[in-house]
Design a protein that fits this description.
The protein is α+β, with helices and mostly antiparallel strands. It contains seven helices and 30 strands. The protein has helices spanning 15-18, 173-184, 205-220, 244-249, 322-335, 363-368, 370-376, and strands at residues 44-50, 58-64, 72-77, 88-91, 93-98, 105-113, 121-127, 138-143, 152-157, 188-191, 225-227, 264-268, 271-275, 342-346, 361-362, 380-383, 389-392, 395-399, 403-405, 411-412, 416-419, 438-442, 464-468, 475-476, 483-484, 490-493, 497-500, 507-514, 521-530, 543-553. The strands form seven sheets. Strands 12-13-14-16-22-17-27 form a seven-stranded mixed β-sheet, covered by helices on one side. It has a six-stranded mixed β-sheet with strand order 11-10-9-28-29-30, covered by helices on one side. A five-stranded mixed β-sheet has the order 15-23-26-19-20. Helix 2 links the parallel strand 9 (152-157) and strand 10. It starts with 14 loop residues before the first helix and ends in a 6-residue tail after the last strand. The relative contact order is 0.12. It binds fe (ii) ion (2 copies).
Length: 559
């Protein structure tokens, strides 16, 4: 595709001129003078997320180039006679932020739909009084989640970027990745962080987000896309942890802490999904960074000071334990709930990655969260961060003092995860994840940086992983005035690594839940489809790489 096709028309406005118009409530209430002819409130970047209960609540979110007047959703149920259906109008809440680097104010709108019927299809349209298309506003259909123990499908990958190759790390594969979700028609999609890499394009962050949002709209306007934040959502100038853009654009289930939107849970059928913000616990320093030699100079309209070379936005520990306390109480509640058969965790960074050229495994996740996953029997962990595909054996517990320092060779305790099986089940059988958690890296969304080369122990030929066990602070680089972040500091044998895709760094995970029958087993069939050839040139073709099945006794019938 032409590289600039996705650049949407942007109206750059400064925060100073419009600050008087901004409010945290619906813009409908605003009585400020408004130039309707000049202000473009046409909805774009339209996307859905689940509300608190996916069987009854969905949020429709979008952005517009300027402040929308009377932003609203028209909603009706699709089933039955259309003429018998009364469309309801739901007004959208406005949320804005002003980018701390280029001063652009971003207008977003969020219509929370509640009281919906379960397993029902709805048609909606989004519009505003200053929508250029208000005669024929954008419309689409979506389906609410079913209730109870019923079959459903979800899909997952991370590290999507945008199709606009003018932006750092973007690739045309990003468009094909979105269409791949539509091919599989899941109930919803999990987007495992590193959404668009706006922080690598610091002078134009909102424009990168817009291209991302307009690309994912093809699918995310039809089914919820549930994200978690990655290191590339951490932006200079946009809040204490740099997540203001992410948090403004996404409406996500509450977590009862001051950090709502960064981690959350939702349940579909008998599966509990837990989405985490791993930047809170990882050792790796991988957020916004000024490499130099020039400082990063925000637009004068922001009033923000230049950011010196060598500065990184390192947020480890930002919740001061609040996230881990929430995780433990959420898992403890799930352990008492016989309506939950499966627990699936989504996060961006990896506890188990043997990528050779990527980031590797992070000890911070291993020491903080893996013991909780063990204690409460988390079945699956879905990640991104390294742009490849890797599946672990089921793991439980860890081996101590088997790693070594990458430079000196001295012993290092990497908390090497311990596999509870090291072969596939016989006769096409299933893994039983009651004995161990399986980790998947699904980092092959649509960046231009595939990382599908994997570590090998040169002495034994066995898989080897890099492990980050301490803060990799930026150090002076070879060119005067520049800085670079060191790579992982330790190595270990990746005894936990079951399968690595060396054919391509791109693909999509497709997960089919079979709830089983009372007295029987429930299963999840996981198929990974990869885009062979995409490392060289973008392709629409995704083909099956492997299928694995997990099975366990239903908890409502377990003795
Ligand atoms: Fe990442
Ligand atoms: Fe990434």
């Amino acid at each position: 595709m032409p590289p600039n096709r996705r650049i949407s028309r942007r109206t750059f406005v400064t925060g100073a001129g419009l600050s008087g118009l901004l409010s945290a409530t619906s813009s409908r209430a605003s009585s400020a003078p408004f130039d309707l002819a000049a202000a473009d409130g046409t909805p774009e970047q339209i996307h859905l997320t689940w509300g608190e209960d996916p069987a009854g609540s969905v949020c429709i979110s979008w952005a517009s180039a300027a402040q929308a007047v009377n932003p609203r959703v028209q909603l009706r149920q699709s089933t039955g006679s259309v003429h018998a259906q009364q469309a309801s109008s739901v007004h959208a809440v406005q949320r804005t932020y002003t980018d701390g680097l280029n001063g652009q104010t971003v207008f977003t709108y969020h219509a929370s739909l509640t009281g919906l019927k379960d397993n029902a299809e709805y048609h909606y349209s989004v519009t505003a009084d200053n929508d250029r298309h208000r005669a024929r506003p954008f419309g689409a259909t979506f389906r609410t989640a079913p209730k109870g123990r019923v079959p459903f499908r979800w899909t997952s990958y991370g590290d999507l970027a945008t199709p606009n190759t003018a932006w750092t790390l973007s690739s045309p594969q990003s468009e094909f990745a979105v269409k791949a979700v539509e091919r599989f028609q899941p109930l919803f999609h999990l987007l495992n962080g590193d959404l668009c890499y706006a922080n690598l394009n610091p002078s134009v962050q909102p424009a990168v987000w817009a291209d991302f949002g307009n690309n994912v709209q093809v699918s995310a306007s039809r089914r919820p896309w549930m994200p978690c934040p990655g290191n590339h959502e951490i932006e200079f100038g946009n809040g204490a942890q740099g997540f203001n853009s992410y948090l403004t654009r996404y409406s996500l289930p509450q977590n009862g802490t001051p950090f709502s939107g960064l981690w959350y849970r939702f349940q579909v059928g008998s599966v509990l999904f837990i989405s985490l913000s791993a930047d809170d616990v990882i050792y790796q320093d991988s957020g916004a960074f000024v490499a130099g030699p020039a400082p990063l100079q925000p637009s004068p309209s922001t009033g923000n000071a230049p950011i010196a070379p060598g500065t990184s936005l390192y947020v480890r520990g930002y919740s001061e334990g609040a996230q881990t306390r929430w995780l433990e109480s959420t898992l403890a509640a799930a352990s008492r709930d016989v309506g939950i058969d499966w627990i699936v965790v989504q996060m961006h960074q990896d506890a188990l990655s043997s990528s050779k050229n990527g980031n590797g495994s992070d000890k911070g996740i291993r020491e903080t969260w893996l013991p909780l996953f063990d204690r409460y029997g988390v079945d699956l962990v879905l990640c991104g961060h390294d742009h490849d595909y890797e599946r672990s054996w089921p793991v439980r517990g860890c081996n101590h003092d088997v790693g070594r320092d990458a430079s000196s060779g001295a012993p290092v305790d990497t908390l090497q995860p311990k596999p509870v099986a090291t072969s596939n089940p016989a006769n096409g059988g299933a893994f039983d994840t009651t004995h161990g958690t399986i980790h998947f890296i699904l980092g092959g969304g649509g960046t231009n940086a595939p990382l599908d080369a994997y570590g090998v122990n040169p002495d034994s030929g066995a898989p080897q992983a890099k492990v980050i066990t301490k803060h990799n602070r930026p150090l002076l680089g070879k060119i005067p005035g520049t800085f670079a972040k060191p790579g992982a500091d330790a190595l270990e044998d990746a005894v936990w690594s079951a399968r690595r895709d060396t054919g391509t760094g791109y693909g999509i995970g497709v997960f089919d839940l079979d709830p089983g029958t009372p007295g029987g087993k429930t299963s999840i069939s996981i198929s990974y489809y990869h885009a062979l050839g995409a490392d060289m040139a973008a392709t629409a073709h995704y083909e099956l790489f492997e299928t694995v099945v997990l099975a366990k006794a239903r908890r409502d019938t377990a003795k």
